[in-house]
Design a protein that fits this description.
The structure holds three protein chains of three kinds. By secondary structure, chain A is mainly α. Chain A contains 13 helices and two strands, in the order ααααααββααααααα. Chain A has a two-stranded antiparallel ribbon with strand order 1-2. In chain B, the strands form two sheets. In chain B, strands 1-4 form a two-stranded antiparallel sheet. Chain B has a two-stranded antiparallel sheet with strand order 2-3. In chain B, helix 7 crosses helix 8, helix 11 crosses helix 12 and helix 11 runs parallel beside helix 13. Chain C folds into three domains: 237 residues, Rossmann fold, CATH 3.40.50; 173 residues, 3-Layer(aba) Sandwich (Rossmann fold); 82 residues, no CATH class. Chain C has a six-stranded mixed beta sheet with strand order 6-7-8-3-9-10, sandwiched between helices. Chain C has a six-stranded mixed beta sheet with strand order 16-19-20-13-21-22, sandwiched between helices. The chains are: A mainly alpha, B mainly alpha, C alpha/beta. Chains in contact: A-B, A-C, B-C.
Chain lengths: 345, 300, 510
């Protein structure tokens, strides 16, 4: 446990150092840049709540990817499932108007259903025809992207807007602010808790975990491997769909062009950094959100382009994972060498 | 008549980047690496091709820059995956992200633009004309006048086949994938073959990327590979890496790519025509999965 | 006489802290057959891999003709004339014999990447085959030749590289009793041509027959090096295990009960028409241990898959307690069948999961006390209690219930799996090589437990490649050969030689 935290922290530190070296090469002041990054993401109630709100889609898609990877299915379809969830919630919000107590749960359910529909499609292709979900979900991402682009450019286009987007959804479907904090953050935390409970305490979660580690063993042990596969696909799609719904309902309150592209690989990246741990996903999700949020402010005062956040993220993933895996090897080798020296003496 | 020629030339242009990237990926496939970084390598190459060509007003420099750009990713891949033993899938995903992030960043940093960069100063890769062949009706306009990279891709396919199946290098390369222990105990280091396969992959993805930004069009756009790396991965898996099979599958994808453009001319909205290659990939996967499943059913 | 090769003070610790070779010094002479014997895990293979440069060592010196050498990779060792054939045959099944032999030392005609000169390669390989009378076809596809032939290809691969030292790691474990004398004759012929042969084994009869000298290892340490002519089986066994070993069966007569398991006309046909399982019929009764002998790959795999429900047989039926199971799901089968697979990490457990998670597998579905809320939630309190009971009853040594399964030693892993399956109250028990890779103590334990299942009147089907094991505990021995059951023998009325004959030839020829 301590070793896990240690190698995680070490990975972040090394990654930040690598990032600093890149900034130095580019002629920027690393400390000032990181300072600005922190200031605009964590420095005060305003930035902090913005970071938390921005972390919602990251954590939820991360959770989706983490649960999928830990359970076996290589669901890389979070981007597609997210835009489908967003689209479903938008559709509901455009055509149905109820009081908030009904409207909000309804739109959330629609978002969940939209995401699950798109992941279920991939799951079905695997179950019925044996098509590998790995490539199928990737292709469905592209298709979902083009499809929603069409929807907001033609049937649902807001004629008053300059770029393709839908009109705003019904006011009663907006996620309310609780003080400075948007309520979507609470929903995200609830989702993490519920999924942790399902994964660690439910019988289904037990079978998912074991199947992810060794599916032949699980199958021989009497687990319903096929049923579990479909369940995991649906649940992880639902999580990504929920992320999409909350992006619309908590933020711009409409489906904007390029909504999906912003979160394309972030969820998968966060799951990888978190080594598919659910609590770790929450931590890394907020961390990445802080970098993304801070980058926009940083650009204003340091004239470092905000795009450097993307480079930094990729460096983070690689270095954190490599550090974790290599640290384990090094620890083991050191222990071995110590023992060898004793025996040879 | 013109429609057919148009469709075929469209097919060839669509097939070329996928073919080259897939041939590159085939080397790593045979070497036993789960390499999904073709997308990133191509994207880096596309950017550096434009950079080189813009700076030196020479497509040849652009081409060399492209290969160097892809090579950067290959070297990082080698460092993490072969040297540090980091998971190949994770390395690949991170590298694709890195390529996307750094090209977007550099686009802003070097060219001071967001989204797309184009300039009159960029020298594009020339088309090659064969005066004699050109006169032949139907065949002439298809065979002659294509981009240099297209012809290179044809040569590359044959070269790839020869290298993989007829040479000492190929024998060792495939051994690295089939049974690394066997190769190691034969006195050849598997890691060396893997490194070489990644470097070769970078060269091919470099050509593919250069074709995208200096051949197909003359500009660089953010994320301009648009999933072609993934389609090339699908192509490799569908034919178990065989170069001629890859060529065939790439032409098929190229055809659907061309078909999409063609349909656009008939008023189908671009969002739907752009989906066509991805739907075609799903179709190909379906056929592959069915064939596999039948084989499995018979096997047990 | 000075040693040709000498290993001095070799130490190897596998990370994190498995001490595999513990300060071992040993010398080998030119033109001798020198056996290294020891139990599984005694470090004999590791010691040879250190010499071969396949595994880096932590300290020690390797000398050849008195000069220190350091091999960083097998290629270096081969260049110095030392070659090793591994326990698992490591050939490339997609390649032909000649491609496998020349790999890494290919004749080429030049050109980019080096164009293979296949005609010359085939000729060179053929010449080596003739020189050593190996009876192989250089152009045969490796996946289509027998295990004994595979081994010859491995040896040929080294002879092609002109090695003068051959290391063989348990080469007889995959051979039938009848194939072994031929291998030994070939090895002795090689020795007479001044090749040094280092022979790793734990089968003492073979070692005594073949070797000039024998080095015994135990728990990473060298115990002694003795001349084969000056020792015997009992003395070797005592050095190997560290105590006296009994070579006789502890099986006592036990009445057999009703028929529990029955297979009728079971067949599995491959897509090309080859019958992997050919009309197999047999039954197992309560309180009876039925052993299945046979060289691996003669239908055992298909039999296990058919019984467990991993793959449906092409035809035939299986019944347990009179009810057909061929149509049942795996879960429904598991109410009737306990199963110990041959590969713990692949089929019997999840290595990264906790010991607890591994202990409750299958029980979590079959026993109501492990779940609450109509099966939605697992009852971890009962699961913890169960894991502790299981560990205590089957003496599993573990740090904690939450430690990963992989942290257990091989013997403890097998005890946990065995206990888990034993505690499922099933009438029928299928065991596929349950003692593979275990040390003598664990093997004795597992045998004792199998016998106690027999006492508990359960029907046991034991698949094993180890004939001695079958003779120690089985009541009846069935022999599988090319997918068919070619003999059904009562253990007391047969012997190892007869079973071996059936394994090899499928019938007894006069």
């Amino acid at each position: 446990m301590t070793r896990r935290i240690l190698s995680g922290v070490l990975g972040v530190v090394i990654a930040l150092v690598v990032g600093a070296i890149i900034m130095l090469i580019e002629g920027y002041e690393p400390l000032a840049t990181y300072g600005a990054l922190a200031q605009f993401s964590l420095g005060g109630i305003g930035p902090l709540t913005t970071t938390l709100k921005n972390s919602v889609p990251l954590v939820l898609t991360g959770l989706s990817a983490a649960i999928a990877f830990a359970s076996g299915p290589v669901n890389l379809g979070q981007p597609g499932q997210l835009v489908f969830g967003a689209l479903a919630a938008t559709l509901g919000g455009l055509y149905i108007s109820l009081p908030p107590v009904l409207e909000i749960p309804l739109l959330l359910l629609l978002a969940i259903a939209g995401g699950a529909l798109w992941s279920g499609l991939a799951g079905l292709m695997k179950q019925a025809f044996g098509m590998s979900e790995f490539i199928v979900t990737l292709m469905l991402n592209m298709i979902a992207d083009f499809f929603t682009a069409w929807v907001i450019a033609y049937p649902l286009m807001d004629r008053k807007a300059f770029s393709p987007m839908t009109p705003p959804i019904a006011r009663s479907g907006w996620m309310p602010d609780i003080g400075p904090l948007n309520s979507s953050v609470l929903l995200m935390l609830a989702a993490v808790v519920v999924m942790w409970f399902v994964f660690q305490r439910w019988r289904a979660g037990y079978e998912w975990r074991i199947t992810g580690q060794n599916s032949l063993f699980a199958r021989l042990g009497g687990c319903d491997v096929r049923g579990n596969f479909m369940a995991v696909m649906l649940v992880t799609g639902a999580l990504a769909g929920l992320a999409g719904g909350l992006v619309v309902m908590g933020g711009p309150h409409r489906f904007l062009k390029g909504l999906g592209a912003n979160y394309a690989w972030d969820g998968i990246m966060i799951a990888i950094m978190a080594n598919n741990g659910l609590v770790e996903t929450l931590i890394y999700g907020v961390f990445v959100a802080a970098i993304q949020t801070g980058a926009l402010g940083m650009e204003l005062i340091t004239n470092v382009p905000s795009e450097i956040a993307q480079v930094l993220q990729a460096v983070l993933v690689l270095v954190i994972v490599a550090t974790r895996e290599y640290a384990a090897v090094v620890f083991d080798r050191l222990a071995a060498r110590r023992q060898a020296r004793e025996r040879a003496a | 008549m013109n429609i057919i020629v148009g469709l075929i030339t469209g097919m060839i242009s669509g097939a070329t980047p996928i073919l080259l990237a897939a041939l590159g990926g085939a080397f790593t496939f045979y070497a036993g690496i789960f390499n999904i970084a073709m997308e990133g390598m191509m994207l880096m190459a596309a950017f550096f091709a434009v950079l080189g060509s813009f700076l030196f007003h020479s497509w040849l420099v652009g081409l060399l820059f492209a290969i160097a750009g892809a090579m950067i990713l290959a070297l990082i891949f080698i460092f993490f995956s072969v040297t540090l033993n980091t998971d190949e899938f994770v390395t690949g995903i991170a590298l694709n992200l890195f390529a996307l992030g750094s090209t977007t960043y550099l686009l802003r940093q070097i060219f001071k633009v967001k989204g797309v960069f184009t300039s009159k100063l960029i020298d594009s890769i020339p088309n090659i004309h064969f005066p004699l062949i050109e006169k032949i009706p139907l065949l002439g306009p298809v065979v002659s006048g294509r981009n240099l990279i297209v012809y290179l891709a044809v040569i590359a396919t044959i070269f790839c086949y020869y290298l993989v199946f007829k040479t000492r290098f190929g024998l060792r390369l495939r051994a690295a994938g089939y049974n690394p222990n066997s190769l190691d105990s034969s006195g050849v280091r598997t890691s060396r073959m893997r490194i070489q396969s990644l470097l070769l992959c970078a060269v091919f993805c470099g050509l593919a990327g250069a074709f995208l930004s200096l051949g197909y069009v003359t500009l660089f756009a953010e994320n301009m590979t648009a999933g072609r790396g993934w389609i090339s991965l699908a192509a490799i898996i569908l034919v178990d890496g065989h170069p001629y099979g890859i060529a065939l599958i790439s032409l098929l994808f190229g055809f659907f790519d061309g078909l999409g453009l063609f349909l656009q001319g008939y008023g189908v909205s671009s969002q739907f025509t752009s989906m066509v290659p991805y739907i075609a990939t799903l179709g190909a996967l379906y056929v592959y999965a069915r064939r596999n499943r039948e084989r499995e059913r018979n096997a047990l | 006489m000075d040693d040709f090769i000498s290993l001095e003070h070799m130490v190897k610790v596998y990370p994190p802290r498995v001490l595999a070779v513990d300060n071992v010094s040993v010398g080998f002479q030119k033109g001798e057959i020198h056996s290294i014997v020891g139990e599984n895990g005694a470090g004999k293979s590791t010691l040879m891999k250190l010499l071969y440069g396949l595994v880096p060592f932590d300290s020690g010196v390797v000398k050849i003709n008195g000069a220190a050498v350091h091999f960083r990779k097998p290629g270096d060792a081969i260049a110095m004339g030392i070659g090793m054939v591994h326990q698992e045959i490591e050939l490339i099944s997609q390649y032909t014999v000649w491609e496998n032999v020349v790999l890494g030392a290919e004749p080429v005609r030049g050109g980019i990447g080096g164009t293979l000169d296949s005609a010359r390669a085939i000729e060179l390989v053929r010449r080596k085959i003739d020189e050593f009378q190996f009876n192989l076809d250089p152009s045969a596809q490796v996946e289509r030749i027998s295990v004994a032939a595979l081994q010859k290809v491995e040896i040929l691969k080294l002879l092609y590289r002109n090695v003068s030292v051959l290391i063989l790691d348990e080469p007889t474990s995959v051979l039938t009793p009848q194939e072994i004398p031929q291998l030994f004759a070939e090895l002795k012929r090689l020795r007479d041509k001044d090749t040094t042969i280092l022979f790793i084994s734990h089968r003492l009869d073979e070692v005594l027959e073949l070797s000039d000298r024998i080095t015994v290892m135990r728990k990473g340490k060298k115990i002694a090096t003795v001349a084969a002519s000056e020792t015997n089986k009992e003395a070797l066994a005592q050095m190997m295990v560290g105590r006296q070993v009994i070579f006789t069966s502890k099986r006592t007569p036990h009445p057999r009960g009703d028929r529990v398991f029955e297979a009728k006309g079971l067949s599995v046909t491959r897509h090309d028409g080859l019958k992997l399982l050919d009309n197999v019929s047999f039954s197992v009764h309560a309180g009876e241990i039925v052993g299945i002998a046979g060289v691996e790959g003669n239908g055992q795999f298909e039999l296990v898959n058919s019984v467990m429900g991993l793959a449906a047989p092409t035809s035939g039926s299986i019944t347990v307690n009179g009810g057909g199971i061929t149509k049942l799901s795996i879960l429904e089968r598991r109410k009737l069948i306990s199963f110990v697979p041959q590969d713990r990490g692949k089929m019997g457990a999840s290595l990264p999961a906790s010991i607890l998670d591994n202990a409750i597998m299958t029980h979590h579905r079959l026993e109501p006390r492990f779940s609450a809320w109509r099966g939605l939630v697992l009852n971890y309190r009962n699961a913890r209690a169960f894991t502790d009971t299981l560990a205590k009853r089957f003496s599993v040594q573990m740090a904690s219930r939450q430690s990963p399964f992989r942290s257990l030693s091989g013997g403890n892993q097998q005890k946990l799996i065995l206990g888990r399956e034993f505690l499922l109250s099933t009438p029928f028990f299928l065991m596929d090589q349950p003692t593979r890779g275990l040390d003598v103590g664990s093997i004795e334990y597992v045998h004792g437990e199998i016998l106690s299942m027999r006492e508990a009147n359960r029907a046991v089907l034991l698949i094993s490649a180890d004939l001695e094991e079958l003779f120690l505990i089985a009541d009846r021995i069935l022999v599988m050969h090319r997918g068919r059951i070619v003999a059904d023998l009562v253990a007391e009325q047969t012997n190892i030689e007869e079973v071996g004959r059936y394994m090899l030839e499928g019938k007894i020829t006069a």
